[in-house]
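Re-run with default settings, no changes from the original entry. Doing this only to confirm the output is reproducible before filing.
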Amino acid sequence: MSKTGKIFALLMVFALLVSALALGGCAKKDEGTGTTPPPAEKVGIKSVDDLKKGDKVAVQSGTTGEGWAKENLEPKGIVVVPYDDVLLAFSALQAGDVLGVINDLPISQDVVKDQTRGLEIVQEITTNEAYGFAFSKKNTVLRDSVNWALAEVIKDGSYNTIYAKWFGSEPMSMPKAVSGITAKPAGELKTLTAGKIILGSDTAYPPFENVEGGATVGFDVDLMAAIAAKLGLTSEFKSYKFDALITGVQAGSEFDMVASAMTITDERKQSIDFSDPYINSNQSLAVKKAQ
C-alpha cells in the first residue's frame, strides 16, 4: 500500500470512530439499567394550589363561585374572569382562554359528562352549600317523613344510582342528615291530594328539573319519586317561578312542598322549614383533561 493510501485509511478509521461516539451520545442511557429513560410525564392541574400568579380561571357572574374565587384566588394574583352564562365559561376553558372553571359541583358534573368537551373535575371545593326540600312550618309531619325516606333512599343505594344517571358519576361527597330522624314518623301524613305529594318547582334548571316533551324530568324528579315510594305515595311536579315558591308553600293551597334546587340559607329558614340536605352544592374546579 502506498503512503498516500495509508493516510487515507487512517482518516477513514478516525471518521468512523467520531461517528460512533456521536451516535452513542444521542441516546443517553441510564447507567444502572442500560436502558433509555422514558420522557418525563406531563403533570396537569389537580387543584387550585397548582394555579400560579397570572393564570386565569372562569366563573359565572353573580354566583357563589365567583365570590369564592375573588376571595381566595385573586389575592394570589390569579385572574378571575366572569361570564354571564356558565356554558360560556366552559367554552372558554375548551378554547384555552382560561385554565379552569370554578362553579357549583353538580352543574359542572353535568357539563363535563359530555366526553366530547375533553374536560374533567379535579377538585371539590368545600363551601358548605347544600340544597334542601322546602316545607310550610305547619307541615312538620311531611317534613319529617321526607327526611326519613331520604335517609332510606341513601341507605339502599338508590340515591347513588339516580345521581350517576343525571350527573355522569357518583357523588364526590354525600349530604349529611342534621334532623336526627331515624324512624318513620307516626303522625298522620296529610297532603293536598290523597296518596300523592304535589311539588312546586321552577322546572327550567337541568339537570335538576326540566320539561322535555311535556314531561318534567331530572334529578329532583327521580329522587322525589323514590322518596314518595318509600312513603307509599306518588309524586307530581308543577311549574312555578322560583321567586313564587316560598310564598306558595307557605300558603299550602297549590302544592305540598318545594323541590327546586333551593339552597338552604338562614334567611330562608325564617319563613320556611327545610329538609335535611339532599345534595351538596360545593364549588369545584374543572380543567381540560391532561393530554
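Confidence is low (pLDDT under 50) at residues 26-30. Residues 3-26 form the longest helix (24 residues).
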